[in-house]
Structure formats: C-alpha cells, structure tokens
Amino acid sequence: MLQIDGVSKTFFTNTVNERVALHDISVRLGAGEFVTVIGSNGAGKSTLLNITSGKLRPDTGTVRIDDKDVTRLADHQRAKYLGRVFQDPMAGTAPHMTIEENLAIALERGRFRGLRRGVTNAKRARFREELATLELGLENRLGAKVGMLSGGQRQALSLLMATFSEPDILLLDEHTAALDPQRAELVSRLTAELVERHHLSTLMVTHNMEQALRLGSRLIMMHEGQVVLDLDAERKKRATVADLLGAFEKIKGAALDDRTLLQ
Ligand SMILES: Nc1ncnc2c1ncn2[C@@H]1O[C@H](COP(=O)(O)OP(=O)(O)OP(=O)(O)O)[C@@H](O)[C@H]1O
C-alpha cells in the first residue's frame, strides 16, 4: 500500500529556471491496485515515480509504504520495498552477467535477503519455472549473457526481476515505449499477468492512452503537477481514448480560462 500525501516538488527554486513539478499532490494506492498514469510532457509523472522510489526528496509532504514513513529514506534504503522497470531496456539488467546471475541478484533483494547470491540447483529450478512463463525460451538459456538478448527479451527479464521478490510497490516508467509494437504487446501482456499473479500495487506511467485504458484497475491523468482526473475501475472500463482526449482538452481550456480571468 502506498500513500503519497501533500507532496510538492520544485526544481531550481527562486531562479529564472524554476519548475514546479508536483503541486500538493496526494495519491493513495490500495493493496493490489494497478494504476495507470497519463499526462502531457512535463506533467510530473516521472517526478512522482522518482519521489516514490526515493531518487528525489519532496519539498513538502510524505510518502508511506505499508504504513511506514519512508519520506526521508534514501533510494537504496527503500529498494527492498520497490520494483522498478525503466523505459530503457538496458537499464534494468547487467549485460555482462548471465541470465541466472541477474536473477540471483534480483532474488537477493527484497524479502529473500537471507539467501546467498550463489546459484543453487533449487534456485535454478525456480528461475527455469519463472522464465518459462515468459514464453520466450529463456528457461533454456540460463548461462547466456544478458547483453546478447533483444530489447524485448531484456525488458521481459527486467519485469520478471522487478516482480518476483514480490515488492510492496511496482513502478513502471514507460517500460514499453522503446519497444516495437509486437514486443510492446508482449511486455504489456506479461505486465498484466505478473501484477495479477503477485497481487502487486502498481503505478505505471505511459503515453499510450489505449494501453492506459486496457491495463490496470484505475487511471489517473496528471497536468501541471496535479492529478486532474481519477477514474475507478468502472469508469475506466467505459472510457475511450476520445473521452480521455476530451477531458484533457477541457482541463487545458479551463486552465487557460482561469489565466485569462486573472489577467
Ligand atoms: N532533475 C530535474 N531538474 C530540473 N527540472 C526537472 C527535473 N526533473 C523534472 N524537471 C522538471 O519538472 C517538470 C516535470 O517533469 P517530469 O519529468 O516529472 O514530467 P513527465 O510528466 O514525466 O514528463 P514526460 O512525459 O515528458 O516525461 C518539468 O517541467 C521538468 O522540466
């Protein structure tokens, strides 16, 4: 469970480059809730994920994971609660290590810290079983260097690594955006399966509105550092891409009207 309460973040405060990235934002995720996050460029989506992961500190507000206040914990101290997959397929895995070495490191994080890093036969059996669910044949290539895999295969592996220690929160940062449509579709399908199987509380940023509507149990739209639309499962099921575009136009229009009124 994630509770982001009253979080604000401004970059380059009191300079000509000042940017308000988040403005008093509050987002709460229940256990197993899968929220897709859309919004225009600069809306604050990545900043929200970076504040959740501890990569950035908020200026004000708090971040709680499973009722524990983690606002002041650095990213490495929070890592055990979180899984994260980035847009760049090269970011989540170590290319010079084998598939099983990468998986062993991922397994060591999170709740399995008692285990040693070495790859035992028991672990190998588990890796094979988990990899088989990807349906990419990687279960037969445990000794292959990860750098030899395609972008789609690496991203599928990153996703598996981020999820199989069952983190409290899964953060997906446009994780299908750099893949061709077929691979993006595969990674989308795997995302839905893994989130469901491990019952993970998930925040997924995407620019693909159709994907944002298809995946997840709730959708939020951000604009200028705030949540401007929050659709629950029922409303999300009925919504179309045209509805989302319409809502966004209306919000932008309202913001313009407000500014006009102030002048
Ligand atoms: N490290 C940083 N230093 C300075 N400004 C930043 C930094 N990170 C984000 N910003 C600014 O904060 C605002 C929000 O950026 P953010 O990257 O969170 O938006 P986003 O919704 O993820 O955008 P995009 O969809 O383009 O990735 C923008 O104005 C951006 O320029």
Automatic annotation (TrEMBL):
Annotated TM spans: none
UniProt GO cellular component terms: plasma membrane
Stored InterPro entries: AAA+_ATPase (IPR003593), ABC_transporter-like_ATP-bd (IPR003439), ABC_transporter-like_CS (IPR017871), ABC_transporter_ATP-bind (IPR050166), P-loop_NTPase (IPR027417)
Pfam families per the UniProt record, alphabetical: ABC_tran
Classification via SMART domains: AAA
Domain ABC transporter per the UniProt entry, residue ranges: 2-249
Localization in the cell: Cell membrane
UniProt keyword list: ATP-binding, Cell membrane, Membrane, Nucleotide-binding, Transport
Alphabetized GO MF terms: ATP binding; ATP hydrolysis activity
Stored PANTHER family: NITRATE ABC TRANSPORTER ATP-BINDING PROTEIN, TAURINE IMPORT ATP-BINDING PROTEIN-RELATED
Name the record gives this protein: ATP-binding cassette domain-containing protein
The organism of origin for this protein: Georgenia subflava
